[in-house]
Amino acid sequence: MVTRKDSLSVESISTGLKTQVVGRKIIHYPRLPSTMTAARQEARRRAPEGTVVVADEQTAGRGRRERRWLSPGGCLALSVVLYPGLAQLSSLIMIASLAVMHSIRAVTGLEPQIKWPNDVLANGKKVCGILVENDLKGKKVEYAVIGIGINVNIKVAEFSEIEPVATSLSDELGREVSRRDVLRRLLVELDRLYLQADETVFEEWRDNLVTLGKPVRVETGGRIYEGMAESVARDGSLTLRLTNGAMMTVVAGDVTLRHGQ
Ligand code: BTN
Fold it and tell me: With a 6 A CB cut-off, is 71 part of the ligand 1 pocket?
């Protein structure tokens, strides 16, 4: 039986974990402000590549665009330290989204979808957010940190600010899910996809985007655009056909699918 306290101890995560890079070192905090900050500190000290910082609870979780990310007990919150080359940087978001999709599918049987640029949905609602931060010196990547937050065992109805757009694995399934099982599978998938580092990662990401071929509203640079999401490029950018027929490339922004979420 899974309980809210299902263990995220280093031993319970790492015993028998068959990965090459991701999870070589695992640091667990019962509670901390943000795993992103702790992972950046690890990276600055040149922690081994694949170091994972995981917390049972974050008190100042960060989302994209300076937003707050709620991660009470029952959620999964982790950050992974990597030292990729410049050419691999744009694929990190693809790797992370695919790894989350595969691990949720394997552990729960749900069929998650990826929403550009970095959300994973379950039955049309956001179940996971991904944040990639990096430190560049000229053309050299000093480090990159992938942050992943998954709503595993929370009752989203108790959190009014996310309730309209978010869900959790337990809300979808009507039962609790082992955070440890999701995390262990996630580390295996991240490791596999990071080491794969080839064209098929982009192709699989593109083919699993729920966004493509749909009418969307995009908020970027403080403005809102409406159009059809036509394609994505290898650098992860989205090409929109605007309602006036013009084409537009979006590198970063928030997307709403116009017919439903
Ligand atoms: C988003 O959708 O805006 C991205 C959310 C990313 C949240 C994760 S939880 C683990 C890591 N630590 C943080 O403070 N943020 C990321």
Answer: yes
**Dihedral angle, C-alpha 97, 101, 106, 109, nearest 10 °:** 170
CA 140 to ligand 1 center in whole angstroms: 24
Dist CA 256 CA 119 (whole Å): 11
Tens of pLDDT along the chain (261 residues) come to: 455 457 799 999 999 999 999 999 999 999 999 999 999 999 999 999 999 999 999 999 999 888 899 999 999 999 999 999 999 999 999 999 999 999 999 999 999 999 998 899 999 999 999 999 999 999 899 999 999 999 999 999 999 999 999 999 999 999 999 999 999 999 999 999 999 988 899 999 999 999 899 998 888 888 888 899 999 999 999 999 998 888 989 888 778 877 644
**pTM of this structure:** 0.94
CA of 80 to the centre of ligand 1 (A): 12
Counting from 1 in the atom list of ligand 1, the atom nearest the Cα of 62 is: 14
Residue closest via CA to ligand 1's atom 16 equals 147
Ligand 1 centroid, distance to 113 Cα (angstroms)? 18
Rg (CA), the chain: 18
